[in-house]
Every structure is written in C-alpha cells, then in structure tokens.
Amino acid sequence: MTSTATASFVVDTWEPQATDEAAGTEFARVAIAKTFTGAVEGTSTVELLSASNATSRAYVAFERLEVSVDGRKGGFVLYHTADDSGLTLKILTGSGFGELTGISGTASIEIDGEKNHHFTLTYTL
C-alpha cells in the first residue's frame, strides 16, 4: 500500500566545500544539514554537487535521513537530480534501515512565497 507523509523542513547548515570554474561553467560542492517536522520528523545530511553557467544549472545530491515516518523510526537515502526541467527525488533501493527497512518511493519539495520548505514523501513499506 502506498502512503504519503508531509513535513516542513529548515536548512540548518549550508556550507560550500569547493568550487571550480572553467570555460564559463562553475562546479560547486555543498554540505547541507536539515531538520524536518511533521509526519517526517528528524534530521538529514546532504552532499550536493552542482554545475552552473549563464544559461543552465543542474545538481545531483545524496541525502541521508535519520527520521521517523508516520511514527516508524529509522532512515533512508534520497537521491536528488535537478536541472532546468525540474527536480526528481527517489529513495535509493536498499537504503532503508530500522523500522524503515524496505522503504521505496519518491519525494517532492516545494518552497512557498515566504521561503518555507514543504516536503512530501510518497512511499511503500
């Protein structure tokens, strides 16, 4: 059965680790920490790699969540891919642990006009 859990989150840390620019395209690496509240409750750490230039930008990231989802404690890894056409978030197969062992699914992030971050997890266990 597919379930949906919603939460909000704040970015606690945004730490650029390295940048490199050549031929008009910049590479960047960023370490991020987040705190989630709602049906997804807990924290995450993110390793993000991005590339951007005057006409385009994209990133990939891995996010390790240590959370409870609808009251089940454990965690999993989200794999992010994003470019000018949109953002995709998928749970990395086999990454679930604790009471979230076996979790699969997708997620979405929306930022409202007041810069609040909203997280929706669509999952099966």
UniProtKB/TrEMBL annotation:
Stored InterPro entries: DUF3224, SO1590-like_sf
Q: Which SUPFAM superfamilies match?
A: SO1590-like
Q: Give the Pfam families listed for this entry.
A: DUF3224 (PF11528)
Lineage top rank: taxon: Bacteria
Q: What is this protein called?
A: DUF3224 domain-containing protein
